[in-house]
């Protein structure tokens, strides 16, 4: 099945998907009902929670989450530990909420607890963030990663997962004014901590960030196997997905490894190379 998906939707080899967890989608454009992408398509995100084609595991049942921008600057969040396919509130909410910019995520835990606080997306003020991938040997460097979060942001740390920690660390390093640079610097620090701890595991990173005006999506890995990530643009509407939600392969383009997609409400989407700077190993 993975081979079919790789041939259908992009130029990546099937091996590119080894070791990836979770599935997500992000949308920015004319307001639509969340159900149009989260629930309705044949390979919707709810369907992918049970039958993912391009992940390490086909089942992503360790919770789910929605985040959407509406009339206020801060996004609304709904997160739950039940599997997406068995939560009637998820379908009802998606049928009623219309948004111009929203995130949705189904989770497959890489070792941290299945709690609401560990479900994506994460929010802080007007900022929203979600992630698919892995921090190799996270349990060995968790405390060191948390030390990257300053005291004034650490009170916002509610969960125990790597994604929230990276999000808060990047916020401290200028995520609002320089999203691409802040994420790059944060990943460099995390990778240095992994090296210092003697980890031989990869750092794999597919993520989406928004401040309500911009949608910025990353696909990067320290090895040759970044998590899958695709995008489509039609009449100014941008959709980014872990794997396509429908059977229209000609409309989906794989985001190249080590690239970032940048879109805003006032400019066309563009792809740029994404480079994680070299960082000196930090003590474990």
Short structural description:
With 284 residues, this protein is α+β, with helices and mostly antiparallel strands. It has helices at 2-9, 35-38, 45-51, 88-96, 138-146, 151-154, 162-172, 179-196, and strands at residues 23-33, 64-69, 76-80, 98-106, 122-124, 127-135, 203-210, 214-221, 230-234, 237-241, 253-254, 259-264, 267-273.
Describe, in plain words, how this protein is organized in 3D.
- It is a single chain.
- The chain is an alpha+beta fold and 284 residues long.
- It has a single domain (2-134, 207-273), classed as 4-Layer Sandwich (Glutamine Phosphoribosylpyrophosphate, subunit 1, domain 1).
- It has helices at 2-9, 35-38, 45-51, 88-96, 138-146, 151-154, 162-172, 179-196; strands at 23-33, 64-69, 76-80, 98-106, 122-124, 127-135, 203-210, 214-221, 230-234, 237-241, 253-254, 259-264, 267-273.
- The strands form two sheets. A seven-stranded antiparallel β-sheet has the order 3-2-4-1-10-9-11. It has a six-stranded antiparallel β-sheet with strand order 5-6-7-8-12-13.
- β7 (203-210) and β8 form a beta hairpin.
- The longest helix is centred in the middle third of the chain and has 18 residues, at 179-196.
- It is globular.
Which characteristics define this entry?
single chain, 284 residues, alpha+beta, Glutamine Phosphoribosylpyrophosphate, subunit 1, domain 1, seven-stranded antiparallel β-sheet, six-stranded antiparallel β-sheet, 13 strands, 25% helix, disordered N terminus, glutamine amidotransferase
